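As the work plan foresaw, the team has encoded backbone shapes as discrete tokens. One protein thus recorded appears below exactly as we store it.

:::
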Amino acid sequence: MQSAKTKSKRRCHAIMYAEFFGQKLAKARKDAGYTQREAAKLLKIPQSTIANWEIGRTQPDIESIGIMADFYVVSVDWLFGTKGQNFNPNISPKAHFEKEQAM
């Protein structure tokens, strides 16, 4: 059985990750050189949905998280604030997306 302290610590970590996720998502988008409108159009996701994710009002499902990480060329670990790099220094996110679209 878990102690109240352990439960509280886990709840605190979950809140911390949720608070930073939106900020990380917004940073990834901006670092990739996209506005919310541009990203929404290319990803076929409503701009309001991206805005809600970035401000923490709602959270994306696991599939959307993977799509966003691939699109912005960041690791899911980095988005969650656990570990990982925020970008591949050898290729810009826009160049990566264009390369993927050409395939």
Observations:
- The longest helix spans residues 4-32.
- The helical segments are 4-32, 36-43, 47-55, 62-72, 76-80, 93-102.
